[in-house]
Amino acid sequence: MVTGMTAVWYTAQFYALFFLIQSLRVDCVTANLLVGAALVLGSPFYILFGWLSDRVGRKPVMMAAMLVSRCQGAYRTYRKVETDI
Question: With a threshold of 0.70, does the pTM exceed it?
Fold first, then answer.
């Protein structure tokens, strides 16, 4: 599971950088600073959720994260459909 999550994490970071540079035409230095800042701001959450998973178990933390992700995706889809009408 850890290997799979690591592959997903690296893919997301490199794709975000690629998207900023290629699609949005952000210059390389700014794109790298943005991705670096996001990583620095997000890193403490690894410690927080690691501690939380030690306290309550890994499965509840993962299920809660998947639920939040699903709700966010549903909300974005709903907003897109609402604006397209």
Answer: no
